[in-house]
Amino acid sequence: MYGRGRGWSPRTPSPFNRVAANRDGDILRGAALQEGTKTPSSLNDDNNITKPQPQSHDPFDICPRPLPTKQTAPTVVLKPSLLVTNRERRKQAAEGGGTGTHSHPLVVTLRPGMILLKKYISVSEQVTIVEKCRELGRGSGGFYQPGYGDEEGEGAKLRLKMMCLGKHWDPLSTHYTDHRPSDGAKPPEIPPEFHRFVREAMAHADTLHPITPDICIVNFYSQNGRLGLHQDKDESEESLRQGLPVVSFSIGDSADFLYGDSRDVDKAKKLLLESGDVLIFGGKSRNVFHGVSAIHPMTAPNPLLHQTYLRPGRLNLTFRQY
Ligand SMILES: O=C(O)CCC(=O)C(=O)O
Ligand SMILES: [Fe+2]
């Protein structure tokens, strides 16, 4: 995914020092290194440092329930009335999308091989996706904060939480593996309903080869999340040669998505990806450089938040065929 396309390996000096210094910022150093990880080294009985142990990752809940307030016991969390929810749904439908009727999606060709299905995923489908990602994300192989740098996980961290389905993408080796090296977890399977959503979306991108995804990388960006410009180049040579597309679902807060022909942020185009958007890039755009430069707070659709408690931020799923 990110690594190989970014043109470095763990044994060569990481370009992230450069990236971190130039505001493109897909990593955090220092204090943020602590988030979501535990140090893998430990002492044995004789107080000698042992070999690195498998890490455990703190569970990460993308839909935390509100804490009860002090003065009232037990707290009842009020969901909006049906009237309010329906009004919001109608408003959203009137604004042009996310209605769940895929008969006339707005299909925009951004460049050859790069297709945007605007507000394509209905709110109820977004709810299904969020709930499934929540469930899988809290279990074995669920969300963690991926690190680069060294085998002890003491290097830089990506500025997002990640979970892989189908196969694990390892940021250290920049290869796909059957298990997550840090804790040995096997990635959960891609849920059958996700396969259906991808199949239906692909039908609107008929200039591109359809995929049968066997990998889905799920990223959760908090409001200061970022992802530097990179190419997705770690799938099989055959997949890349055929230009098999990456299918990307955006849910939650909107994001500034950058794309272009080089890693140069100043030359990249900027696209606002909103909740329910599907971006497909394959064929002549399979190697496009892309990244996320900003998340826009408080832009997620209210009905989605009311139904899922999705935390502030953005969920992105990229489906690929190895
Ligand atoms: O979050 C996005 O829109 C892009 C994610 C991405 O490029 C990746 O996971 O490789
Ligand atoms: Fe990517």
TrEMBL record:
Homology family: Belongs to the alkB family.
A Pfam match: 2OG-FeII_Oxy_2
Name used for this protein in its record: Fe2OG dioxygenase domain-containing protein
Cofactor: Fe(2+)
Superkingdom: Eukaryota
InterPro entries recorded: Alkb (IPR004574), AlkB-like (IPR027450), AlkB-like_sf (IPR037151), Oxoglu/Fe-dep_dioxygenase_dom (IPR005123)
PANTHER family: ALKYLATED DNA REPAIR PROTEIN ALKB-RELATED, NUCLEIC ACID DIOXYGENASE ALKBH1
Keywords of this entry: Dioxygenase, Iron, Metal-binding, Oxidoreductase
Record flagged with keyword Iron: yes
All copies of domain Fe2OG dioxygenase, residue ranges: 212-322
Biased composition regions of type Polar residues, renumbered to the chain: 36-56
